[in-house]
Design brief:
This protein is of the alpha+beta class. 29% of the residues lie in helices and 27% in strands. It has a 5-stranded antiparallel beta sheet. Strands 1, 2, 4 and 5 form a 4-stranded antiparallel beta sheet that branches. The chain contains 4 helices and 15 strands. The longest helix is centred in the N-terminal third of the chain and has 24 residues. It has one domain: Creatine Amidinohydrolase (Alpha-Beta Complex), CATH 3.90.230. The structure holds magnesium ion (MG). The site of magnesium ion (MG) has 5 residues, from loops. Magnesium ion binds next to loops.
Length: 248
């Protein structure tokens, strides 16, 4: 069941979503060669606590940290560790927060130092695909119009869309219905309507879309070792169109 949010509830969701945006911005500022992902996780934990919010991912199905840090061929759910970031890496940073009864969730992929043209283009296309998804999150469209537009744009740029992980509804729970694939035929699935709040999150691979999960039970990586990028916003569908809640 898709839980619709009242205007009042959407107003309450602005707080956790703004906190997510603020924390992610501070983490991004700290990204440079030599920094470890555990240090980035510590920044996220300090900043979310300062804002009297709780990290959403720590302890979620046993995830050991608050920030997902997925490097290079890692797609999502990378676990922070003590290995320093290297010049030329790309890193996806995914963060969720809980405040006043509601969740917010967002992700960005950023360069570490100077990166290859390929990596830079992959990041650009992935970010653009998120905004294409957001533009489709309007009253009257159907869910798979989002999915189809992401797939079309990504594949037109020579990349592939991850199948095994999807976006999701969000609200009083981190993961709610509907699941939102980033691929598929248009004009299918439920009609989108005012009051839906969706975490839209295209995951885009440089080569094949196939992914596997490492022995740690969490880290998803590309099977062929190609790069992967990921962007996410929490978006409310309003009568005036999509409202991105996780902007600063
Ligand atoms: Mg999410």
């Amino acid at each position: 069941m898709i839980v619709l949010k009242s205007l009042k509830e959407i107003a309450r969701m602005r707080a956790p979503c703004s906190i997510v945006a603020e924390v992610l911005a501070l983490v991004v500022e700290a990204v440079e060669p030599g920094v470890t992902t555990l240090e980035l996780n510590a920044i996220a934990e300090r900043e979310v606590a300062k804002r009297k919010a709780k990290p959403a991912f720590r302890g979620y199905s046993g995830f050991p940290c608050s920030l997902c840090c997925s490097l290079n061929e890692q797609v999502v759910h990378g676990i922070p560790n003590s290995t320093p970031l290297k010049d030329g890496d790309i890193i996806s940073l995914d963060f969720g927060a809980y405040y006043d009864g509601f969740f917010g969730d967002a992700a960005v992929t950023v360069p570490v130092g100077s990166i290859s043209a390929t990596a830079s283009n992959l990041i650009k296309v992935t970010e653009r695909s998120l905004y294409i998804a957001i533009d489709k999150a309007i009253n009257g469209n159907r869910l798979s119009d989002i999915s189809n537009s992401v797939q079309f744009f990504v594949e037109s740029n020579g990349y592939s869309v991850v199948r095994d992980f999807v976006g999701h509804g969000i609200g009083r729970n981190l993961h709610e219905q509907p699941q939102i694939p980033n691929y598929g035929d248009a004009n299918k699935g439920p009609k989108l309507k005012q009051g839906m709040v969706l975490a839209l999150e295209p995951m885009v691979n440089e080569k094949s879309y196939e992914v596997k999960v490492l022995a740690d039970g969490w880290t998803a990586v590309t099977v062929d070792g190609g790069l992967s990028a990921h962007f996410e916003h929490t978006v409310a569908i309003t009568e005036n169109g999509p409202e991105i809640l996780t902007l600063i």
